[in-house]
Amino acid sequence: xxxxxxxxxxxxxxxxxxxxxxxxxxxxxxxxxxxxxxxxxxxxxxxxxxxxxxxxxxxxxxxxxxxxxxxxxxxxxxxxxxxxxxxxxxxxxxxxxxxxxxxxxxxxxxxxxxxxxxxxxxxxxxxxxxxxxxxxxxxxxxx
Length: 143
Fold this sequence. Notes:
Elements: H1 3-7, E1 12-14, E2 24-28, E3 37-47, E4 51-53, H2 55-64, H3 73-87, E5 92-101, E6 120-128
Antiparallel strand pairs: 1-4, 2-3, 3-5, 5-6
């Protein structure tokens, strides 16, 4: 998995208001194969610094995530976090992947027998610039 090739789709543009802290939320449904999970949703929340993620290009970036194989939602979440940190360098960023579990089978040792289809699986990772003293807007825009 070449991160440089993956990041090619993550285009940026200048922040029109770099003096202000504000929240940007982007989301989409990547067509990725996550073992044991269905219908993943990727949500990115960030407080921009000098650059913003180009909204229309973000859809292409999400679509491109399907070209790589992912061992699970944790792998996907951390890769997107790294991509955004490298290309956008926001003041604060939170990446979340939500998916539904598929039903486990009692004859499959890797799947708990009591796991039911549709149970949510969420992975959230965040980062911030070391010198940024703002507060992460955790309660704003949550769904």
